[in-house]
Amino acid sequence: MATGAGAAAQSATPSELRLTLYFWIAGFDGTVGTADSQGSVDADFSGLLDNLELGGYMLHADWSRGPWTAFGDWSHFNLTSSAPSPFGALYAGTDARIKGGVGQVAVGHQVVGHADSRADAFIGLRYYNIEAEMTLQPGLAGGRSLNGSSAWVDGIVGARWHGRIDRQWTLLLYGDVGGGGSKYTWQAAATASYEFRWGALVGGWRLLYVDYDSSGLKLEAALSGPFLGAALRF
Protein backbone atom coordinates (compact mmCIF):
# COMPACT_ATOMS: atom_id res chain seq x y z
CA MET A 1 0.00 0.00 0.00
CA ALA A 2 2.83 2.39 0.87
CA THR A 3 4.53 1.65 -2.47
CA GLY A 4 1.29 2.28 -4.34
CA ALA A 5 0.67 5.53 -2.49
CA GLY A 6 4.21 6.70 -3.28
CA ALA A 7 3.79 5.91 -6.98
CA ALA A 8 0.48 7.76 -7.08
CA ALA A 9 2.04 10.80 -5.42
CA GLN A 10 4.93 10.74 -7.89
CA SER A 11 2.62 10.53 -10.90
CA ALA A 12 0.64 13.47 -9.52
CA THR A 13 3.77 15.63 -9.24
CA PRO A 14 3.48 18.37 -11.88
CA SER A 15 6.24 18.72 -14.45
CA GLU A 16 7.19 21.79 -16.44
CA LEU A 17 9.18 22.36 -19.62
CA ARG A 18 10.53 25.76 -20.64
CA LEU A 19 12.11 26.65 -23.98
CA THR A 20 13.98 29.95 -24.06
CA LEU A 21 15.64 31.84 -26.90
CA TYR A 22 18.20 34.46 -25.85
CA PHE A 23 20.17 36.98 -27.82
CA TRP A 24 23.60 37.33 -26.22
CA ILE A 25 25.47 40.63 -26.66
CA ALA A 26 28.83 39.08 -25.81
CA GLY A 27 32.44 40.03 -26.28
CA PHE A 28 35.72 38.43 -25.26
CA ASP A 29 38.64 39.47 -23.09
CA GLY A 30 41.85 37.44 -22.80
CA THR A 31 44.55 35.63 -24.75
CA VAL A 32 44.04 34.02 -28.15
CA GLY A 33 46.69 31.91 -29.84
CA THR A 34 46.75 30.43 -33.36
CA ALA A 35 49.42 29.15 -35.74
CA ASP A 36 50.62 29.07 -39.34
CA SER A 37 53.65 27.61 -41.13
CA GLN A 38 55.92 30.18 -39.43
CA GLY A 39 54.84 29.21 -35.92
CA SER A 40 52.27 30.16 -33.30
CA VAL A 41 51.25 33.65 -32.21
CA ASP A 42 49.56 34.66 -28.94
CA ALA A 43 47.87 38.05 -28.54
CA ASP A 44 46.07 39.69 -25.63
CA PHE A 45 42.69 41.26 -26.32
CA SER A 46 40.71 43.50 -23.99
CA GLY A 47 37.47 45.46 -24.18
CA LEU A 48 34.50 43.13 -24.03
CA LEU A 49 32.45 44.97 -26.65
CA ASP A 50 35.31 46.15 -28.87
CA ASN A 51 34.44 46.08 -32.58
CA LEU A 52 31.46 43.82 -32.00
CA GLU A 53 29.92 42.42 -35.18
CA LEU A 54 27.55 39.87 -33.71
CA GLY A 55 27.37 38.61 -30.16
CA GLY A 56 25.45 35.39 -30.35
CA TYR A 57 22.30 33.55 -29.42
CA MET A 58 21.37 30.80 -26.98
CA LEU A 59 18.62 28.20 -27.07
CA HIS A 60 17.88 26.77 -23.63
CA ALA A 61 15.59 23.92 -22.54
CA ASP A 62 14.72 23.33 -18.88
CA TRP A 63 12.57 20.48 -17.49
CA SER A 64 11.60 19.95 -13.86
CA ARG A 65 9.50 17.41 -11.97
CA GLY A 66 9.43 17.38 -8.21
CA PRO A 67 13.00 17.58 -6.86
CA TRP A 68 14.54 16.60 -10.22
CA THR A 69 15.59 18.90 -13.04
CA ALA A 70 17.31 18.47 -16.40
CA PHE A 71 18.45 21.26 -18.67
CA GLY A 72 20.62 22.00 -21.65
CA ASP A 73 21.47 24.80 -24.04
CA TRP A 74 23.36 25.66 -27.18
CA SER A 75 25.17 28.98 -27.62
CA HIS A 76 26.49 30.34 -30.90
CA PHE A 77 28.79 33.36 -31.05
CA ASN A 78 30.76 35.34 -33.63
CA LEU A 79 33.02 38.00 -32.14
CA THR A 80 35.80 40.27 -33.40
CA SER A 81 38.31 42.42 -31.53
CA SER A 82 41.57 44.29 -32.11
CA ALA A 83 44.80 44.46 -30.11
CA PRO A 84 48.31 45.96 -30.37
CA SER A 85 50.89 43.92 -32.23
CA PRO A 86 52.67 41.32 -30.05
CA PHE A 87 55.84 41.99 -32.12
CA GLY A 88 56.16 45.76 -31.75
CA ALA A 89 56.62 47.72 -34.99
CA LEU A 90 57.05 44.53 -37.02
CA TYR A 91 53.26 44.50 -37.46
CA ALA A 92 50.83 47.43 -37.23
CA GLY A 93 48.23 45.60 -35.11
CA THR A 94 46.28 42.41 -34.58
CA ASP A 95 42.69 41.55 -35.47
CA ALA A 96 40.99 38.38 -34.27
CA ARG A 97 37.69 36.62 -34.80
CA ILE A 98 36.36 33.97 -32.42
CA LYS A 99 33.37 31.96 -33.60
CA GLY A 100 31.73 28.66 -32.85
CA GLY A 101 29.36 27.03 -30.42
CA VAL A 102 29.15 25.79 -26.85
CA GLY A 103 26.56 23.22 -25.77
CA GLN A 104 25.87 21.70 -22.38
CA VAL A 105 23.55 19.23 -20.68
CA ALA A 106 23.07 18.67 -16.96
CA VAL A 107 20.92 16.80 -14.44
CA GLY A 108 20.22 18.22 -10.99
CA HIS A 109 18.41 17.56 -7.75
CA GLN A 110 16.91 19.98 -5.26
CA VAL A 111 18.94 20.33 -2.07
CA VAL A 112 16.95 23.03 -0.24
CA GLY A 113 13.79 24.94 -0.97
CA HIS A 114 10.11 25.64 -0.55
CA ALA A 115 7.27 26.94 -2.72
CA ASP A 116 8.92 30.27 -3.64
CA SER A 117 12.61 29.36 -3.53
CA ARG A 118 14.77 26.33 -4.36
CA ALA A 119 18.43 25.49 -4.84
CA ASP A 120 19.61 22.60 -7.04
CA ALA A 121 22.99 20.90 -7.31
CA PHE A 122 23.80 19.48 -10.75
CA ILE A 123 26.38 17.58 -12.77
CA GLY A 124 26.83 17.68 -16.54
CA LEU A 125 28.96 18.01 -19.65
CA ARG A 126 29.94 21.03 -21.75
CA TYR A 127 31.01 20.71 -25.41
CA TYR A 128 33.00 23.32 -27.34
CA ASN A 129 33.57 23.70 -31.08
CA ILE A 130 35.57 26.89 -31.57
CA GLU A 131 37.52 28.47 -34.42
CA ALA A 132 39.93 31.41 -34.13
CA GLU A 133 41.19 33.54 -37.00
CA MET A 134 43.97 36.09 -36.46
CA THR A 135 45.39 38.70 -38.82
CA LEU A 136 48.66 40.55 -38.23
CA GLN A 137 48.41 43.87 -40.06
CA PRO A 138 51.39 44.87 -42.28
CA GLY A 139 54.09 46.96 -40.60
CA LEU A 140 57.82 46.60 -41.14
CA ALA A 141 56.93 43.06 -42.20
CA GLY A 142 54.17 41.90 -44.50
CA GLY A 143 50.85 40.81 -43.06
CA ARG A 144 50.14 37.30 -41.78
CA SER A 145 46.91 35.33 -41.46
CA LEU A 146 46.65 32.52 -38.91
CA ASN A 147 43.83 30.25 -37.88
CA GLY A 148 43.12 27.35 -35.58
CA SER A 149 40.15 25.31 -34.46
CA SER A 150 39.38 22.61 -31.93
CA ALA A 151 36.53 20.69 -30.30
CA TRP A 152 36.55 19.29 -26.79
CA VAL A 153 34.40 18.26 -23.80
CA ASP A 154 34.55 19.27 -20.12
CA GLY A 155 32.80 17.78 -17.12
CA ILE A 156 31.04 20.36 -14.92
CA VAL A 157 29.46 20.53 -11.46
CA GLY A 158 27.50 23.44 -10.10
CA ALA A 159 24.47 24.87 -8.39
CA ARG A 160 21.63 27.21 -9.21
CA TRP A 161 19.06 29.06 -7.12
CA HIS A 162 15.61 30.10 -8.30
CA GLY A 163 13.47 32.46 -6.25
CA ARG A 164 10.25 34.42 -6.64
CA ILE A 165 10.62 38.11 -5.82
CA ASP A 166 6.91 38.92 -6.09
CA ARG A 167 3.87 37.78 -8.06
CA GLN A 168 5.50 38.27 -11.48
CA TRP A 169 9.25 38.72 -10.95
CA THR A 170 11.62 35.78 -10.47
CA LEU A 171 15.41 35.59 -10.17
CA LEU A 172 17.82 32.80 -11.16
CA LEU A 173 21.48 32.62 -10.04
CA TYR A 174 23.74 30.03 -11.69
CA GLY A 175 27.35 28.89 -11.29
CA ASP A 176 29.52 25.95 -12.38
CA VAL A 177 33.17 24.84 -12.52
CA GLY A 178 34.80 22.09 -14.53
CA GLY A 179 37.61 20.76 -16.64
CA GLY A 180 38.73 17.86 -18.78
CA GLY A 181 39.49 18.99 -22.30
CA SER A 182 40.12 22.44 -20.82
CA LYS A 183 42.65 23.06 -18.10
CA TYR A 184 39.90 24.90 -16.22
CA THR A 185 36.53 26.46 -16.91
CA TRP A 186 33.84 28.24 -14.96
CA GLN A 187 30.56 29.96 -15.73
CA ALA A 188 28.25 32.34 -13.89
CA ALA A 189 24.90 33.88 -14.85
CA ALA A 190 22.13 35.94 -13.32
CA THR A 191 18.66 36.03 -14.91
CA ALA A 192 15.60 38.13 -14.07
CA SER A 193 12.23 37.02 -15.48
CA TYR A 194 8.88 38.79 -15.76
CA GLU A 195 6.26 36.04 -15.77
CA PHE A 196 3.14 35.74 -17.93
CA ARG A 197 0.69 32.87 -18.32
CA TRP A 198 2.38 31.74 -21.52
CA GLY A 199 5.95 32.10 -20.24
CA ALA A 200 8.26 35.00 -19.44
CA LEU A 201 10.45 37.79 -20.73
CA VAL A 202 14.00 37.26 -19.48
CA GLY A 203 17.21 39.24 -19.27
CA GLY A 204 20.51 39.07 -17.46
CA TRP A 205 24.28 38.66 -17.67
CA ARG A 206 26.37 35.60 -18.52
CA LEU A 207 30.13 35.03 -18.23
CA LEU A 208 31.94 31.93 -19.50
CA TYR A 209 35.67 31.56 -18.78
CA VAL A 210 37.79 28.86 -20.41
CA ASP A 211 41.50 28.04 -20.31
CA TYR A 212 42.31 25.70 -23.20
CA ASP A 213 45.60 24.98 -24.97
CA SER A 214 46.29 22.62 -27.88
CA SER A 215 48.71 22.57 -30.80
CA GLY A 216 46.29 24.50 -33.02
CA LEU A 217 44.36 26.75 -30.63
CA LYS A 218 44.99 28.57 -27.38
CA LEU A 219 42.11 30.29 -25.62
CA GLU A 220 42.43 31.75 -22.15
CA ALA A 221 39.56 34.19 -22.15
CA ALA A 222 36.18 35.20 -20.83
CA LEU A 223 33.12 35.48 -23.07
CA SER A 224 30.81 37.87 -21.28
CA GLY A 225 27.88 40.18 -21.79
CA PRO A 226 24.16 40.84 -21.30
CA PHE A 227 21.39 38.76 -22.85
CA LEU A 228 17.69 39.24 -23.54
CA GLY A 229 15.04 36.74 -24.62
CA ALA A 230 11.68 35.08 -24.11
CA ALA A 231 10.63 31.77 -22.57
CA LEU A 232 7.66 29.55 -23.45
CA ARG A 233 6.18 27.35 -20.74
CA PHE A 234 4.67 23.90 -21.48
Task: From the structure above, extract its key features.
single chain; 234 residues; mainly beta; ten-stranded antiparallel beta barrel; 76% strand; disordered N terminus
Please count the helical segments: 1
How much helix, percentage-wise, in residues? under 10%
Report the end-to-end length measured between terminal Cα atoms: 32 Å
Classify the secondary structure makeup into a structural class.
mainly beta
Based on the structure, what is the oligomeric state of the protein chains? single chain
The largest pleated sheet is described as: 10 strands, antiparallel, barrel
Task: Please characterize this protein's 3D structure.
This protein is mainly beta. Helix content is about 5%, strand content about 75%. It is built from one helix and twelve strands. The protein has a ten-stranded antiparallel barrel. β6 (about 90-115) and β7 (about 115-140) form a beta hairpin. The longest helix has 11 residues, at about 1-10. The radius of gyration is 21 Å and the shape is elongated.
Give a short overview.
By secondary structure, the protein is mainly beta.
List the helices and strands and how they pair.
Blueprint (H helix, E strand, L loop, with lengths): L1 H11 L2 E10 L2 E10 L2 E7 L8 E12 L2 E16 L7 E24 L2 E22 L5 E21 L4 E12 L3 E12 L3 E15 L4 E16 L1
Antiparallel strand pairs: 1-4, 1-12, 2-3, 2-12, 4-5, 5-6, 6-7, 7-8, 8-9, 9-10, 10-11, 11-12
